Every structure is written in structure tokens, then in C-alpha cells.
Amino acid sequence: MVVSSLKLQDLIEEIRGAKTQAQEREVIQKECAHIRASFRDGDPLHRHRQLAKLLYVHMLGYPAHFGQMECLKLIASPRFTDKRVGYLGAMLLLDERQDAHLLITNSIKNDLSQGIQAVQGLALCTLSTVGSAEMCRDLATEVEKLLLQPGSYVRKKAVLTAVHMIRKVPELSNIFLPPCAQLLHERHHGILLGTITLITELCERSPAALKHFRKVVPQLVQILQTLVTTGYSVEHSISGVSDPFLQVQILRLLRILGRNHEESSEIMNDLLAQVATNTDTSRNAGNAVLFETVLTIMDIRSAAGLRVLAVNILGRFLLNNDKNIRYVALTSLLRMVQSDHSAVQRHRPTVVECLREPDASLSRRALELSLALVNSSNVRAMTQELQSFLESCLPDLRADCASGILLAAERFAPTKRWHIDTILRVLTTAGTHVRDDAVANLTQLIGGAQELHAYSVRRLYSALAEDISQQPLVQVAAWCIGEYGDLLLEGGCEETEPLQVEEEKVLALLEKVLQSHMSLPATRGYALTALMKLSTRLRGDNNLSLPCHILELKGRLPSHSHATLWPSRIRQVVSIYGSCLDVELQQRAVEYNTLFRKYDHMRAAILEKMPLVERGGTQDEEAKESKEAQLSEAALVPTEPQASKLLDLLDLLDGTFGATQPPPALEPSPGGTLVHLLDLPCASPAPASIPNLRVFEREGLQLNLSFVRPPGTPALLLITVTAVNTSGADVTHFVCQAAVPKSFHLQLQAPSGDTVPAQGGLPVTQLLRILNPNKAPLRLKLRLTYNHFGQSVQEIFEVNNLPVEMWQ
């Protein structure tokens, strides 16, 4: 006997009337017990009513899995009321992870061949929702037959089901190629829109389909031209734009068909120009069509004038009041800046205005585009605008802005003085947000500009006196004061305002840095080294090895002068950090104390100025290439000064002067040639070099592989993955994963970072250790995931053409 239960309407009213969640659970549990009892009794007349109540319970978030088999029974029923609820239950309760969904394959096949449009529509909807790869393979021929049925209702649903099948099983594309050509002649809006979507999916997943459908480009152009000029149907027009959804889909398909194909692109050029000039931009629907037109122009091989028109459209988008449209325009211009730099450059003032947007996402996109627009002709003006933005931007944007300014200044600096001033202003404004290499780059820049030493040390001293909170600025200033403190005290720089600096003020400032709670251990290390170097640069310290009273008798030092007191004061400050908790700072202080105590006569020579350093250029590259040869020559002919320097170094470390004997001179080999040296039994042959390989390149991101096989372990292969970004936007959240066959052993080391800086910045490297005990040919598959130009990208590919030297 069937247990009496509530009707669906009564159940909804009772659940909504529950005042607490406990009351709601009680009502649902009671009704679910009635539904289970009804299913067990097998009441065929009320089964669809019970399942309808169960589906409502499922939509509220309560478990309803016990109704899955009842869905199958209702689908197999000949009654339409049962089938309707059964198919709805299957779409809600079944998915590919459950084997029960395969049991409805035969029922769907039978319903598709019945000829009743309502039943066929239910079966097609269910197949396109829960159809797995196995179901798609079994029912593909049935769906293909329905594509050419006379009824538009069934054909529309069959086209959408075919789209789902292609996404699940791309190899089924050959089945749906012939019907698509006929469906393009349809006048029905839904069928034509679905057909364009189906052709798009086929072209994206099958090169053969892409080649096949390039023949229908003229027909697609004709359909779109009809939409633009005469309209398609009044009921599908939105805000005066004729069927914008169909226009957008056709433009997307044309973009795929015209990519890297000259003939197809030439056919589209006139139509794209017509769409770009005749579309109304006062409504959002028109803006959507225009944006899709711009994307199509960017991707195909369009004419130069058409690309300029596309950039101008995006420039008009920047003036739109809608923030979403401005964001889309900035993102698109960022993608075009590499290929059409001069055209995008015309809209630079508008882009700079977008920096002042209160919306953080718009400001970030405008910042990325502004940095990409910097070149040698506008670097001064753009840097000034970016520095103004840096002073007022959100904290989340300061790191990107500061790094971008530093990179732009390094690439396009007109003079060294301007370069130094720019970096100093960035360090003063947002020193805590700059990249880690900013300090090293600035010290290298100042060290290589001998004519600007006095200017730099004065600027840095003034900045340090005003603010010691910006740690990178403090580090550079401390280094510069230590190196060029004598120039600071002389006061002979004509490029800055007259500044009288006394030794007492300089030492007090460095001591203030050492005592500040804001100073990092690295900053204290810079300040401690600066004090040590100042001990040899302060005036009146040329004869520090003589006692103070002797200097007074000789008349070289006035009585009560502080000139010889600076080393003692510096020594006292240094000795304080001999017991510092920071190991690096403690070691440095102990070494400096030893230098004062035992090797005071060598202090001036050890702490002399750093030699000039040349930045970049071909000289560094040539020096790097010839480094190995120079080291070989130096190893063959050791000289006496080298031995003495080694002696001094060892003596400084162990404190036993004269206890270490100098190394004996190397005796020449019997033949006196390099050949005899290489013929020694202990010498191993140099490993064969393996050529580097570029495996990936997309929108400025390049991935290169370099290979090394250590001589001692021939089964081990070291692969260094290097990611370089030459585009105008940073690549963020960069992750590289690798896979090899089971016979290999793979170990991935941690990468050097997850952000690849734009415009050829510091690359990201990662080491792969692959053990190949069987010396089998290597198969390597890589997966890259990253964010670029505001889009999330994932690439999976197998590396081909690996050098055979890797395993032979």
C-alpha cells in the first residue's frame, strides 16, 4: 500500500513556512521517507510526481541520489509525462562520474528515432548535458541524421548536441562536416547561430576542418554583410544593431579562418572595414560587435590601414564612460603594442589619463600599457608621469610601477646623470617596493660613472639625511658614502648646491642607521662597511700608524684635534657588533676588528676604492666567452704576486703570520706543451657540448632548454629551463611542470621565481634532474600555466627534436 504524502505544491508551501532550519530538515526527512516507500512499492502512476518532489529537494541541497534508478524507469516509460520528469531528473542527478548514466544510452537512441519532436528534444537536451565520450561515440550517427530533419525545433537542438559531442570527442568531426555546409543556408536564427558555433568548434579542434571551411569564407562574408546592411530580422535586433549575437559569432569564426591565411584575410578586409565604420557605438550591443571586429582585425593578416582603424576604435573605447569598455580597450591595446607600436603611441595621452582611475584594475592595465609605450623618444616625459603616479598609487601597484620605471630607465636612459636621478627618485618614493637587484644595479651604475661620483654621493647623502626608512636607498647611500666619502667632504661639486659636510655629521648619520630599528641586517652590513672605508678617507688620516703625540710634535696635527680620533671611534662602533645575533653581521665585525688590531698597516690598501665597472655591452660578452681560456693560461703560469696574495689571505684568516709557507712553484711538464698536460692519466676528456633548444614561444614569452651531462655520472642529465619575456607585460603565476616515461627518474628543483619581467627582464630558471640508467631515448612533456595580458594561459606540449647527445 502506497504511503500517503504531500503534493509538490503543498511540500513547497510547508518548506517555505518552516521557521527554523531544524523544522525544514524535519519536513524534508519525513517526505523523503514517503518518497522512498513509494519507490519501493513501485507505483507507476505516481512515480513522476514523487520524483518531481525529490528534484525540488535536490535543488535545496539535500541528498537525492536514491532517485537515480527511478529516472531510468521514467525515461523508459512510453508516457510523455514520465519521460519529461525522467529526463529532467537524469540531467540533475546523473553525471559522467557515475556509471548509471550509461544505462540511458539505449533509451535515448530509441527516443531519437521515434519521430516525435517533443521526445526527441528531451533526449537531445539530456545528451548535450550529461553525455560522456562513450555515449557521444554511440549516438553520433543518430544526431547527424537529425541535423537535416525538416523540423527546425529538432535541428536546432541537434546542432547544439553536435557542439557538445565535438568538445567531448574531437575525432567525430568528420561526421559533422557535410551537414554544416547545408545548414549555412538556413534562415532560422537559432539554427544558423548554432551552425556557426559548431563550425567554430570544428575549426579549433581539427586542422582538416579548418582547411575545409576556408572555402565557405565568401559565404560567411555575405551573411555578415546582409546583417550589417539590410538586417536579418526585427525580432533579433537589439538597440538598433541587427542580431549582434550572430554578428559576434561570425566574426569569431572569421578570425579563426583568416589567421595565418593571406587569401581568406584579403576577402574579409572590406567587410571588416564596413562593420567598423557603420556600427552604432552609442549602445553596448554595438560596442560588443566593434570589439569583436577589432579582435578579428588583430588576428588575421589585415591591411595596415585596417589595423590603424582598429587601434583608433580602441582609442575611442578609452573615452567611454563604461569602465568595462575602458578595461577591454586597455587590455587589447596592450596586446597590439608589440605589432603596431606607432599606432598605439598616438593614444599615449589618453592612456596616461587612465592612470588616475580610482578603479584598481583599470589603473593596473593602464600602468602595464604605459610601461610598454616607453621608448627612447618619450622616456623623459613618460617617466615623469609614471613617477607622479608612483607617489599616489595604491600600495598593490607600487612594486610593479617601481620595477617598470627602473627597467625603462635602464633601457632608454638618455644620460647617466638622468638615469641616476630617476633611480634615486624611485628609491626615495617607493624604496621598499623595488626589485631586489635595484641596489646592485645602481651601485654598478654609479661605480661606472666616474664623472658623477661627487654628484651621486652628495645627492645620496642629502636623501639619507632626510629619510632612513627606505632600506634600498639607505643601502645605496651607505655604499656610496663609504666609497666616495672623501669627495663628499671636499665639497667641490659644481652640479649641486653648496653643501658643507663635516666628518662628525657623516659618522653620526651612519651610526644612526646602525642603531635604527628600521634597518635590516643587510643595511647594517652596508653601514658597517661604509664606516670601515671612511676610516681611511677622512682628512688627517694619512699617517695613522704613527702615535698621536708624535704627529703633534711634528706639527702635522693640531693639539686636541679629532682627526686621529675617527679610527678609534669607528673601531668602537665596529666592536659592538662582534657579538651581534646576526651571523653575517657578527662575522663582518670580527673581521674588521682583526683588521684594526693585527693588520692596521694593510687597512688602507684593503679598503681602497672599488675599480670602475663597465655595464653591459659586448665587452662583457667577449670576456665571458674567453673566461675559460684565460683561466687555463693563468693555471699554467702562476706568478709571484698571486702567491703572495694567497699568503696574505690565509694569514688574515688564521692569524699566524709567517707560519704558512708559500706554495712551491709548479714544475713544467716534460714536453712543456698543453698536450702533455692533457695526456695525464688523471685528466678526463671534456664532455661533448649539447646544443640549446627553444621549445616554446607565444606573445613574447620564450622557453629555452640547455643541457649538461656531468662527466662523473653519465646517466644523469641536467636540464635548465629558462623563461624570457620580451613582451610589454609581466608574465605572472608562471609554473612549469614536466613529465617523463616511467623508466626515467625526474626531479624538479624549485624555480627562481614565478614572475617573468616584461621587456627582457631577469629570466626565470628552473633545473630538471633526469636520471636515465638505461640510456633510452628521452621523451619530455611540459605543461606551462601562467597569466599574461590579463588572461590565464595553459599550454601542454611534447618537446620534439631533442638532441641525441642527451642519452648516447
TrEMBL record:
Q: List the PROSITE patterns.
A: GAE
Q: Which InterPro entries match?
A: Adaptor_Complx_Large_Subunit, AP1_complex_gsu, ARM-like, ARM-type_fold, Clathrin/coatomer_adapt-like_N, Clathrin_a/b/g-adaptin_app_Ig, Clathrin_app_Ig-like_sf, GAE_dom
The keyword Protein transport appears for this protein = yes
One Gene Ontology CC term in the entry: AP-1 adaptor complex
Keyword Nuclease attached: no
What's the protein's topology in the membrane? Peripheral membrane protein
Q: Which UniProt keywords apply?
A: Cytoplasmic vesicle, Golgi apparatus, Membrane, Protein transport, Transport
GO terms in the biological process aspect are:
intracellular protein transport; vesicle-mediated transport
Q: Where in the cell is it found?
A: Cytoplasmic vesicle membrane; Endomembrane system; Golgi apparatus
Q: Where is the GAE domain?
A: 688-803
- Family listed: Belongs to the adaptor complexes large subunit family.
> Under which name does UniProt file this protein?
AP-1 complex subunit gamma
Q: Which organism is it from?
A: Zalophus californianus
